[in-house]
Amino acid sequence: MKVILFLCLSCILTVGRAQDDDYVVNNKYFPDKFMFGCATASYQGAWDEDGKGQNIWDNLTHTLSRTAYRKIRTMETWPCYVKENWVLTTIGFSISWSGKYLPTGFPYKINEAGVQYYRNFIKELKDNGIEPLVTIFHWDTPQGLHEVGGWLSEFIVDYYAEYARIVFQLFGDDVKYWLTFNEPKQTCQQGYGSGEKAPFVQSHGLGEYICTHILLKAHAKAWHIYDDEFRPTQNGLVGITIDTPWFEPNTTSDEDLEASERQLQFEFGWYANPIFNGDYPEIMKTRIANRSALEGFQTSRLPEFTQEEIDFINGTFDYLGLNHYSTYMVSAMPEPEIGDPSWEKDTGIAVFQDPSWEGSASDWVKVTPWGMRKILKWVKETYNNPAIIITENGISDNGTLSEDLDDESFRSHYYKYYLSYLRDAMIEDGVNVFGYTVWSLMDNFEWTRGYTEKFGLYQVDFSSGNRTRTPKKSATYYSKVISTRCLVDTCEEE
Ligand SMILES: *[C@@H]1O[C@H](CO)[C@@H](O)[C@H](O)[C@H]1NC(C)=O
Ligand SMILES: *[C@@H]1O[C@H](CO)[C@@H](O)[C@H](O)[C@H]1NC(C)=O
Ligand SMILES: *[C@@H]1O[C@H](CO)[C@@H](O)[C@H](O)[C@H]1NC(C)=O
Ligand SMILES: *[C@@H]1O[C@H](CO)[C@@H](O)[C@H](O)[C@H]1NC(C)=O
Ligand SMILES: *[C@@H]1O[C@H](CO)[C@@H](O)[C@H](O)[C@H]1NC(C)=O
Ligand SMILES: *[C@@H]1O[C@H](CO)[C@@H](O)[C@H](O)[C@H]1NC(C)=O
């Protein structure tokens, strides 16, 4: 086994994509009950202008100068999959905290027309045999809550919990799969640490830890509310979606193996470990405490949970949503110098991608499908085999070029290989994966990248009045995968 691993490592390093050439795509049927679908997010598609309140992304994108990055009005996303008559078994979408039905973000004002909008939408999905997979929070903090501290204020825990309760009350009879947060690392590390995403707070090595500490309590509180008040009658499941790449050790040295594990703990364990095991990973606790002391802080920059909080957060999941796109290489490096703190220095690891890997319009997405199997196996082994749904996986093209429609060797290839390694993980490693939703159904607004990176199975002509949608070839491929439950021309039973 070890020898094979060594050989593979060197071939990744030297020939990149070539690894795919000898790889045989999995030809075993996916199980009947496996959920296939598409993912979307409230803010990135439909623009609920009428009666919708402002959130931190509205505020940000409306102040940006480059039009390519400004949010424009798009069509409602949902008629598409009904009209196209796909056999999707699930569709992922998020509810907007300050959306039509809850314009201020606070429950004192509920807009019945907005409630009806979501009810109709959910009913339409169910009438078409599509299971809604609903994310309660996908980055769109109401502007009003941001202005009193947002995710740096403990008060948001109760406001978020109240919002979650309203959503369970209003829609929970028809929704069985809930996700409290999508990619909390993007909210906290990018929103309050590096400051690359809304609300653009730059507080390296401090803000992201405070945000995470508060967000984890909000997650746990929503889970408990569901568990105590709604589960007995609604009988659904509540999870959280955490994103992570796979981190491949650069060499097989003990230091690089440790670097891979440490990076996974800093990216994924930071959120998963408190929820699955009750507290932050030990390696984060000791490294951040050590560095904080050397920097002259009186206490660790990583806040501590009380035992009561640990007991409250520990075990607050029914399943895990995993967003996975790509892989990075990691290698050990000398301890970063003490100076201004940062999350990157706290990890103390060199992270890079192999230039030979096939790229995409997004600099962070390289075609590395073998990473899918590795991350699934790692999650299974590290967190005691949870039920997993891949909630996002996909690749971007540059835009509205007609060539982008012909994406058979690009996006179809990506999906085929990622799904194949996912199926391998289920069969060979016994990982409990029960579903997969691609990112994304349609080209949409990619946050700070605006309309420059297109992940859709459908191309959207944003310059046409009716935002004309055209299926890319990958839409046909994915649709066939869903209807045949098979990645290749013919499949066999497991
Ligand atoms: C964004 O919010 C700030 C207050 O935080 C406000 O002064 C500003 O007008 C808002 N900008 C836009 C474009 O809405
Ligand atoms: C990765 O490993 C190779 C040897 O296989 C070495 O030459 C290179 O310097 C390493 N990269 C880093 C960033 O450590
Ligand atoms: C979390 O719960 C598990 C299972 O009940 C228990 O074994 C573990 O010790 C708890 N974690 C902490 C940090 O208390
Ligand atoms: C933390 O500091 C102690 C004492 O300086 C040291 O022994 C230990 O190895 C450090 N741990 C980590 C994870 O850096
Ligand atoms: C996007 O365009 C750049 C050049 O502008 C090119 O290098 C890259 O290959 C393109 N990516 C895709 C996925 O087409
Ligand atoms: C709207 O879409 C139709 C195709 O469904 C197309 O023929 C028409 O030109 C589009 N209109 C505009 C304004 O883009």
UniProtKB/TrEMBL annotation:
Name the catalytic site residues: 392
Q: What is its EC number?
A: 3.2.1.21
Pfam families cross-referenced by the UniProt entry? Glyco_hydro_1 (PF00232)
Top EC class of this enzyme: hydrolase
Q: Where is the signal peptide?
A: 1-18
Is Hydrolase set as a keyword in this record? yes
- Write out the similarity annotation: Belongs to the glycosyl hydrolase 1 family.
* Name of the protein in question: beta-glucosidase
